[in-house]
Amino acid sequence: METENAAVPSYKILNGNALKMIALITMLIDHIGAAILEIGIIGGYNNGLLNISYETAMRWWEVDNVLRTVGRIAFPIYCFLITEGFVHTRSVKKYALRLGAFALLSEIPFDLAFYHSWFYPGYQNVFFTLFLGLAAMIFMKRFEGKPLFMVASVAVCAGAAQLLHTDYGAAGVLSIAILYFLRNNALEQAACGAVCFFIQEGAAALAFIPIWLYNGKRGKWNLKYLFYAFYPVHLIILYLVCRALFGV
After folding, report:
1. Which of 177, 224, 155 is nearest to 79 (CA)?
2. CA-CA distances (angstroms) from residue 122 to 114, 136, 160, 163?
3. CB–CB of 29/70 below 8 Å?
4. Whole-model pTM?
5. Spatial distance between the Cα atoms of 174 and 150, rounded to a whole number of angstroms
6. Number of folded domains in the chain?
7. Alpha carbons within 13 A on the beta-carbon side of 83
8. Domain containing 217: what range?
9. Are 218 and 16 in contact (CB under 8 A)?
10. Buried-most residue among 6, 58, 207, 208 (CB within 10 A)?
11. Which residues pair with 166 in a beta bridge?
12. Does 7 fall in a domain?
């Protein structure tokens, strides 16, 4: 919910749409590495389908490492944004239905992009993680003042993510729960979030630089469906590009 707040420091220059664009771009960079470089070039070299030298393959591997490192920034921002979305949504039910729907819609594109299979049950897309993170926050709000029930419900949601092998798994759900728990203290939220993600993935802690610059405003345009739709659409495109260029 966008509000005018004269107390917002001048350095808080990023609105919600700007954060989403940073997450979207860094996610795309990450997925280019995973779906094109790793599967198409490096995978093609390893399988003997791509006639390049070992030195060339290693150079592409170094490029891939850079892209994947940059991509670590995306997920913490999405975790932060889902806590903001939960706090400010007018309908938690609609929010949950939207996340659930895009989790299902994105699964085939996800499997095609990263496993080149129409159905791969061994790993699920990140929307399932975000959906379970939302469920954890719903329970945290429901059991506020009852710490045992709160912890138990978050543990169940995290366990479900781990059992389903969702992207980022239990750690992703727990990260969302931590950011939500610390939502009323921006400094503690950013500091604790940075430490947690640094332990998980190192460079992911850098996401808390743009998060710290967030001004609490949504932005002029309501682009939520664009950002939702981008996920499955770009995965399909990456899969088609990989097939067209490398035949794998």
Report:
1. 177
2. 12, 23, 14, 10
3. yes
4. 0.92
5. 12
6. 1
7. 25
8. 16-246
9. yes
10. 207
11. 124
12. no
